[in-house]
Amino acid sequence: MVRKKSLRVASDKSISHRSVMIASIAKGKTVAKNILFSDDTLRTVKAMQLMGVRINIDSHQVEIDGVSKFGLKEPFDVLDLGNSGTSMRLLSGVLAGQNFLSILTGDNSLKRRPMGRIIQPLKSMGAEILSREGNLAPLAIKGGKLSGISHKMKIASAQVKSAVLLAGLYTQDDVEVVEPYKSRNHTENMLKAFGVDIIENGLSVRLGKNRELNGDLEIEVPADISSAAFFMVFAALKKDFEITLKDVGLNETRSGILDIFNEAGVNYEIKNRRVSGFEEIGDIVVSYSPKLKPFEISGEILPLLIDEIPILSILAVYCDGVSVVKDAHELRKKESDRIKSICEGLKRVGVEVEEFKDGFKVYGKPSHPIKNALIETHNDHRIAMSFLVLSAVSSSNLKISETQSILTSYPNFLDHLSYVNG
Ligand SMILES: O=C(O)C1=C[C@@H](OP(=O)(O)O)[C@@H](O)[C@H](O)C1
Ligand SMILES: C=C(OP(=O)(O)O)C(=O)O
């Protein structure tokens, strides 16, 4: 008999950060419903509050009293952005346009992540930015009058694209970002919803004439496909099981995992596809998939599933053959070096892997035996959740070095895992 469960996973982290940041610099009040309250998104909330924005938090929604583009106040203290790359990089774009000093810091992981990618374009627009040796945080930003830019990005990064677009709100000059591949477009969608002119042409995004932001909006934040991914893979690997994941964001710049599911032969179906606000959403139904084929992740699909690679590596363990991830240098620059963390964890449980500079291979087999082991998460939430899923679908007993990091993106993950596994 098939066991069926239904779940609404954590709300979208990327959209939650952008709701708070963009509504703060808009005119008027914005209500963001079903926003994610996690350590990362609360860092963004606190930073905006420190700059004088009134944000009312009420069980599942926030009310943001926008102060308009030039209404932010110099923060009285350092902005501590914890573990959150999105907060640091996007906020830097906003701060580049402010005529005051701000100091941005974070935890040991964030202080090791590359910031040159935003420092360089923001400086060439006219912001003054100081950093630690090697373009590392803490950053000191003294913004002010900015000029235009046509920024050709070497890597596909939504955080870099967003930083430049947000800074671009503070000039009337031409501002353009060109990506090598399309990355998530939530900033573009949200700026449009607030009335900003955005001109998209293939891999180029330009700001048009109107760069004023009008709030008085209601935003509905969908469930995060990156969080849903853990339960999608859980369901594919769990015998006689089916899950319905409700209201998941299906934006095509985020849903590369579904293409990999097609390649691997995962049984899934999308129901109730609809548009909610300015994002496409739907319910994803995934069921046990006993015949899994190996897959390859490379090239332009990478940005469309970048945060799902840890959990897809768990799916690869049970595919009948060798799965490959390449062109994924960016994975080494996340909360941990994810190529290293994944390969180390898989080796410990007895899975053959081959690590290379920009990716790895996983030698999978159906009913792969999994050895009991201690998994080092390197304080990376996605590594912790991926191996907890492996532990739940195999009959092994994995010890996970810590689970605290999960609070950054999915505070009730452990409850949801015991619910589906119960
Ligand atoms: O813009 C965003 O919300 C994000 C962009 C991605 O990072 P990059 O822009 O560094 O690729 C992603 O990995 C991160 O989790 C969230
Ligand atoms: C990379 C991630 O987030 P951030 O860059 O915001 O720290 C993530 O959530 O996997």
From TrEMBL:
InterPro entries: Enolpyruvate_Tfrase_dom (IPR001986), Enolpyruvate_Tfrase_sf (IPR036968), EPSP_synthase (IPR006264), EPSP_synthase_CS (IPR023193), RNA3'P_cycl/enolpyr_Trfase_a/b (IPR013792)
Biochemical pathway: Metabolic intermediate biosynthesis; chorismate biosynthesis; chorismate from D-erythrose 4-phosphate and phosphoenolpyruvate: step 6/7
GO biological process, one term: chorismate biosynthetic process
Family matches, as Pfam families: EPSP_synthase (PF00275)
Residues annotated as binding 3-phosphoshikimate: 13-14, 18, 157, 159, 307, 334
Cellular component terms (Gene Ontology): cytoplasm
Top EC class of this enzyme: transferase
Residues the record marks as active site: 307
Catalytic reactions of this protein: 3-phosphoshikimate + phosphoenolpyruvate = 5-O-(1-carboxyvinyl)-3-phosphoshikimate + phosphate
Assigned keywords, A-Z: Amino-acid biosynthesis, Aromatic amino acid biosynthesis, Cytoplasm, Transferase
Subcellular location: Cytoplasm
GO MF, one example: 3-phosphoshikimate 1-carboxyvinyltransferase activity
Annotated SUPFAM superfamilies: EPT/RTPC-like
Assembly notes: Monomer.
Job description of the protein: Catalyzes the transfer of the enolpyruvyl moiety of phosphoenolpyruvate (PEP) to the 5-hydroxyl of shikimate-3-phosphate (S3P) to produce enolpyruvyl shikimate-3-phosphate and inorganic phosphate.
Name used for this protein in its record: 3-phosphoshikimate 1-carboxyvinyltransferase
